[in-house]
Structures are given as C-alpha cells and as structure tokens.
Amino acid sequence: MMLAIPDLLDADAVARVRAVVDAGDWADGNATSGHQSALAKKNMQLPEDSPAAREAGRIVLDALGRSPLFIAAALPLKIFPPLFNRYAGGDRFGTHVDNAVRIHRASEFRVRSDLSATLFLEDPAAYDGGELVVEDILGVHKVKLPAGHLILYPASSLHRVEPVTRGARVASFFWIQSMVRDDAARTILFDLDRSIQAIAAERGQDDAEIIRLTGVYHNLLRRWADS
Predict the structure, then answer these.
(1) What angle do CA 174, 178, 182 make, to 5 degrees?
(2) Backbone angles phi and psi of 148, in degrees to 5
(3) Number of H helices, E strands in the chain
(4) Quick one: how far is CA 182 from the chain centroid?
(5) Are the CB atoms for 53 and 32 separated by under 8 Å?
(6) Is 48 helix (H, G, I), strand (E, B) or coil?
(7) Fewest CB within 10 angstroms: 168, 170, 204, 220, which?
(8) pTM here?
(9) How far apart are CA 178 and CA 78, in angstroms?
C-alpha cells in the first residue's frame, strides 16, 4: 500500500525543520548506504548522529505521533530516527531496494524496514526533477508532494529518485517496523479502520454494529501483530 499523508508538518513546522537542517553540516549521502545503494546514490545528507539531524528528527517524530492517519496506516512498533537528504545539480538515486534491517550506528537501534517514508521539505515548484518513483505490481508511481506532506510505501518496493536539474530537493526519510509485518494484512486493517470511523461518524460510537466491527478489527490485529 502506498499512502500520501498530507500536512504532516504545517508551514511553521516545515520552516523550523528547514532552519535547523539548512544550518547543519552536510556530508556525502553514501555514509548510510548499503553496497547496492552506494553504486546508485549521489546526494548530500546530514550525518545521522549530528545535532541538526537529532533536533529536526524530534520535530518529525512528534508530528508522526500526532497523526491518526499515519498511526492507522503504519501501525508503528519502531521508527528509525529520521534522516535528511538534499539533491541538487544532477544528484539522483538510482533504482534500489532498501535494506531489510536498518541499524542506527550511534545507538545500535535496529529496525526491520517494513515501510519506507519520505517527508518532502521543499516547495515542488522550487526544483525540477527529484520525483520519487516507486514500482509495484500495479505499475510505476511518480511522487512529488508539497512541503510538509509524507509518502508511505512498502520498503520492499523498487524505487528511485530522479535527477534534480534545477534548485534543490530537501527531504526527510526513515523506516518503520510495523506491528503487522505483512503489507496485505496492514491494508485490510487500514481499510477496516477507515470504514469503522466513517460509519461511526454517522451512527455514533455506541452503535452495536460499530462495537462489533471494532471487535473484529482488534481481533485481527491481535492475530497478526508482533509486539
């Protein structure tokens, strides 16, 4: 399942994150690459243990914790500390698959990468190129969202970032280990949750069928969840 989460950060929060990361010390983006990715990747990145990455990452994590849509879709168990990258002057990231397990070098914090996330931090009109391209069984999807919007997609997907030919593309990226490992099961739970919320808005939370469907949701989650 691919899902866009609009306005994860509002304009003020985007400005706060950009003020922090723009003043940071950027380095070669291959510092965090696996072997396959290093062959395809050309960009700049904030070191994962830099003060700027930690400060801006806290803003992003706080926003994720306040987003019902993100929580319903990802069912997060662990979130890798957000990283930040910048593409300019022809920088790009060729087609690759993310590593199955991500390890935070400074803390040895480990995350099984069930989901990948990109949070756009630049106005799309300010740069050319830089689309995130995700391939799945339904085809090829090109994504270039407004600043503050997030795209969530299976980390097992082939994906790439197209070359940036004008301006600079700045984004945060990170991985999520979900309580529910299987993407199809997560999609079923997400669709069921959305339907429950929509019906509850019409009938009220104390409706007998809402209570029954909520029980079905939690029984499925209990069956599929890792804790």
Answers:
(1) 115
(2) 95, -10
(3) 6, 17
(4) 17
(5) no
(6) coil
(7) 204
(8) 0.93
(9) 7
| 90, pLDDT greater than 80 | yes
Confidence of residue 227 (pLDDT cuts 50, 70, 90): confident
CB atoms within 10 A of CB 65: 11
> pLDDT, tens digit, for every residue of 164-175?
999 999 999 999
List all residues 6 or more positions away from 90 whose beta carbon is below 8 Å from its beta carbon: 42, 163, 164, 165
Query: What span, in angstroms and rounded, lies between the C-alpha atoms of 105 and 191?
Result: 36
What rounded mean pLDDT belongs to the chain?
95
For 91, residues 6+ apart whose C-beta sits below 8 A from its C-beta are 42, 43, 44, 163, 164
Residue with tokens 């740069």: 127
pLDDT in tens, 38-82: 568 999 999 999 999 999 999 999 999 999 999 999 999 999 999
Report the alpha-carbon distance of residue 36 to residue 94 in Å, rounded: 10
CA end-to-end distance (rounded Å), the chain: 22
Residue 95 has pLDDT above 60, yes or no: yes
Report the DSSP pairing between strands 150-154 and 27-28. Answer: unpaired
For residues 183 and 110, give the distance between their C-alpha atoms in angstroms, rounded to a whole number.
20
